Amino acid sequence: MRARVPIVALAILALAGGIMTIRANSRSAESKRQAAPAPQAAASVVVAVAKRGDLVSTISATGSVSSLREAKIASKLAGRVAQVFVREGQRVVTGTALMRLDARDLEAQEAQARASVEGARARLAQMTAGARPEERRQAAQAAAQAEAGVQAARARLQALERGARPQEREQVANSVAQAKAALDLAQADVQRIRSLYQMGAVSKQQLDSAETQLRVAQATYDSARQQQALVNEGPRAEEVQAARAQLEQVQAAADIARQTMRLVEMGPRSEEIAAARAQLDQAQALLTAARLRVQDATVTAPFPGTILQRMVEPGESVSPAAPSFVLAEVQDVFVELVVPERQRADLRPGQSVVVVVDALPQSRLSGKVEEIRPSASVASRTFLVKVRVANPERLLRPGMFARGSITTGVRTGVLQIPDRAVLLTAGKRIVFVVKDGQAVRREVSIGEQQGGVAEVVQGLEAGDQVIVEGQEGLTDNQSVTPRPAQP
After folding, report:
1. Which of 36, 335, 360, 465 is most deeply packed, by most CB within 10 A?
2. Are 328 and 391 in contact (CB under 8 A)?
């Protein structure tokens, strides 16, 4: 019995020691568990694959829409507007009549100038053709008549200076004798008929007729006596002087007639023909000027386009100093973009441009760089770039605000990632790359950034998965749960 007591006691002591040891070990393990850090949960991130491809280099700029060509059109002439043929917004072609002035005075001037040309042409034709046969005959007849007049005037003067010849004196005496005989006979007839009338043998009419014949015979006799006296006396000095003056006059007329006949036979001189030609040229020049004024009374479109403004109505007065219309060519337009001077070296004519206009938000228009202003603006240090854009539907209007993206180059095989994957930490650019379920921090060298894409010069390889969302707050080698970015 005594032997069993010690054995039981020993068993109890051993059991108690084991229990205490187990408790001590449990407390030690719990202390270790409390001292060790708890593992972090995996972060959910969005990744994209770094890949090589074409990188398009662009320059973004803003500006305004302007017309390809724009002209303020005014009348060349001052006057009153008779008709206006177009309205604002109307499309016209080259030569379309826009308005017409009252041209009645101008048309009358044109008609007068045309008549002057016809007259000058007729005079030149007459000179170059020479005298007609009938004109030559008329000139010869006039010269012959003038010469005959000279001969008659000379003969009269000679007769006056020579005096009456014996034959003329005898002829005059015979005329006096005949007149005296006729007078005596008439007197006898009157006496006889008067006696018969007193006896009633003849009528009063017969007596009157006899007395009339007596008076006629008396007048004839008196005239013959006066002529005989003139012949016997000879010409007076004033008659001779008058005859000389008449001879000189007819001689001068004869000289003119002979000179005229010679001119008609010779025809016009070369100087006269040249003068006639000059007169015709002058008249034609005046006619051309008059026609131009009539044409200028109608104002026409100098090029195809759209009437942006109309500032005139029928009945108003216009002048060359005041524009009447604004015409613009808008089938194609310019988008004038303002580019900073630091980007000027990348610009070239012919580069492609994508244009977006705020007034037409759903449209993306394509154009080409057509002109780069050679000098920069001193105030803004910018260059003006003209981009030509097709505008067949005339949706773009001058003055609209526009944004443009100019493609300056395309490089192939460029390693690129979304630019939102790049973080700036302590002045360094970093990205997180997913490797074996962990976010690994990488320093990268970034080149050009365009359109949400960044060029990776150094630090990544093609195929690396970079975190583009959820990378803020990540630590190096932190566990992540990646999911691909939505395209």
Report:
1. 335
2. no
Task: Name the residue among 486, 472, 474 with its Cα closest to residue 440.
Answer: 474
Cα 176 to Cα 170: distance, rounded to the nearest angstrom: 10
The whole-model pTM stands at 0.51
Residue 150 within any structural domain of the chain: no
Q: Is residue 10 over pLDDT 60?
A: no
Residues 279 and 365 in one domain: no
Q: Is residue 218 part of a domain?
A: no
CB of 205 closer than 8 Å to CB of 130:
no
**259 in any annotated domain:** no
Question: Burial level of 459, CB count in 10 A (0-12/13-18/19+)?
Answer: middle
**Cβ-Cβ contacts under 8 Å for 247 (sequence gap 6 or more):** 150, 153, 154, 156, 157
Q: Are 65 and 334 in contact (CB under 8 A)?
A: yes
Q: Cα separation of 427 and 358, whole Å?
A: 37
pLDDT at 248 over 80: yes
Query: In this structure, what token pair is assigned to residue 93?
Result: 């072609």
Residue 173, Cβ neighbours under 10 Å: how many? 14
Overall number of domains in the chain: 3
**What per-residue confidence (pLDDT) applies to 43?**
87
Query: Are 284 and 428 part of one and the same domain?
Result: no
In this predicted structure, what is the pLDDT of residue 36? Answer: 45
My answer on whether 279 and 375 are in the same domain is: no
pLDDT of 418 > 90? The answer is yes
Q: Which domain holds residue 290?
A: 109-130+269-294
Q: Is the dihedral of CA 145, 147, 152, 156 positive or negative?
A: positive
